[in-house]
Amino acid sequence: MTHLNSRDDCLTMDARDPLAPLREHFDLPDGVIYLDGNSLGARPRAALARSQQVVAQEWGRDLIRSWNSAGWFDMPKRLGDRLAPLIGARAGEVVVTDTTSLNLFKALAAALAIQEGKDPARRTIVTERANFPTDIYMADGLTRWLDRGYRIRLVDTHDELAAAVDEDCAVLMLTHVNYRSGRQHDMGALSALAHARGALVIWDLAHSAGAVPLDLHGDGKDGGAASGADFAVGCTYKYLNGGPGAPAFIWVPQRHQAAFSHPLTGWWSHARPFAMDHGFAAADGIGRALCGTQPVLSLALVECGLDVFDNTDMAAIRAKSLALTDLFIALVETRCARHPLGLVTPRAHAERGSHVSFTHPHGYAVMAALIERGVIGDYREPEIMRFGFTPLYTRFSDVWDAVEVLRDILDNERFDKKMNIHARRDAVT
C-alpha cells in the first residue's frame, strides 16, 4: 500500500472497490470519518423503517399476536441461523440473545460442568491478563459462586499460553482479536493444543464476527484448522451493525448441546415453556442456551445489519480490511513519522484483526482533538488510540483524510497537552 502517494490514488482504489456500493446501505453523517465500528457499528438505513414497523404495526396494531404472526418468538434462533455462516457455524447452533457477558457465563458454566464429569481434578481457567476485563470478571464471579476450588490463571504473554494449558487446565478462555492491540490469535492452533491436553476452549468473538473469516468447527471445509472450538460468544453491535446494546450471540456446537447446562435456567430454555411446569426441563438443542423473554425491537434491528452481509462474503470483507489497515499503518508511519507514535497492532496479516492501535504520550488528548475534527476513533488505556476499519462502509479516501487530520493535529500541536484524562474523560470513548 505504500505506493498510494496521494488522495487521488485512494479515490482510484475506492472506484475499483467491489464493496463500495455497500456503503449506501448505511446512514453516515456528512463531514464525519467514522473509524469506530469496532465499538459501535454505523446504522443500516433499513433500521429506521424496521423499528417503525415493529413499533407501529407489530406492537401497535397486532399487539400480543405478533409473538406468533410476526415471528417474534422464533427470532433468537432464526437470527442465529442467519449469523451462523459468518462465524463458520451451522444451522441450529447459534442463538442471538442476552449480552456477551451473560452468554460467556453460560458457556463457562457448561464447560466446567462437562469437565467435572470427565476429569474433576482440573480446576484452572486459563486466560490472558490483557483479555477484555468483563470476561475475567465473569469468570471470577462464577468461580467464587461455585466455591469448589477453581482458580483463574492470568497469562501475561502470548508465548506463555501453551505452557499454561497443562493437566490442571479445565478451560482455555480467550478473545480471538484483542480489544486493545488488535492482535489475532491462531484459533485453530490454540484450540487443537487445548484439546490435545484435555482442556475445552471458549472463544470471545466480539472483535471478530463480521470482520474476520471464522471456522468454529475447524473441520477443514472452509480452510480451517484441524481442530475446532468448543463454545463461542460475541456481540452484534460492532462489525455486525446491530445497534447500541444489541443482543449478543452464543454458539454451542451440536456435539455439546446435550450436555450443555448452566444456572440461568429461565423459561425460554424450558422444553415446554408454556406448560408452566414447576420443575425445569431443558429444551433440546440450542434452545437451552436461552434464558428469559427476548428484546424484540433490538432483535429486529440486528436483522437489518445481517441483511447487508447477503451482498458479499467474508473473504471479500477480509481482503478489504487488510488493505485498509495496511494503508492506514503505512500512511501514519510515513506522514506522521516525526511524532512519538508507536504501532501496537501486529503487521502480519495472520495476527491482525480489523482495527489498528497506536500509542502516543498524549493519546487521549489527540483522540479528543480528532473527534472534534470529525474523525471518530476511540481511546483505551494506556495511551492507546484505536482506529476501526469496517469494510462495508469505510473508504480508502477516508483513510487518507483521517491521517491528514491526524498529521495536522500533531504537526501543529492542536491538542490539549494539559488535558487531565481522569478529570475530563468522557464516560465512553
Q: How much of the polypeptide forms β-strand, as a percent range?
A: 5-15%
Radius of gyration: 22 Å
Poorly predicted residue ranges: 222-226
Sheet with the most strands, sense and barrel status: 7 strands, mixed
Q: For the record, give the distance between the C-alpha atoms at the N and C termini, rounded to a whole number.
A: 29 Å
Helix percentage range: 25-40%
Q: Provide the spatial order of strands within the biggest beta sheet.
A: 2-8-7-6-5-3-4
Structural class: alpha/beta
Count of beta strands: 13
| Helix and strand sequence | HEHHHEHEHEHEHEEEHHHEEHEEEHH
How do the strands and helices of this protein lay out in sequence?
Layout: H1 7-16, E1 33-34, H2 46-59, H3 66-69, H4 75-83, E2 94-96, H5 100-118, E3 124-128, H6 133-146, E4 151-155, H7 161-164, E5 169-175, H8 187-196, E6 200-204, E7 231-234, E8 249-251, H9 254-257, H10 296-308, H11 314-335, E9 342-343, E10 355-359, H12 363-372, E11 375-376, E12 378-380, E13 384-388, H13 396-411, H14 421-424
Parallel strand pairs: 1-11, 3-4, 3-5, 5-6, 6-7
Antiparallel strand pairs: 2-8, 7-8, 9-10, 10-13, 12-13
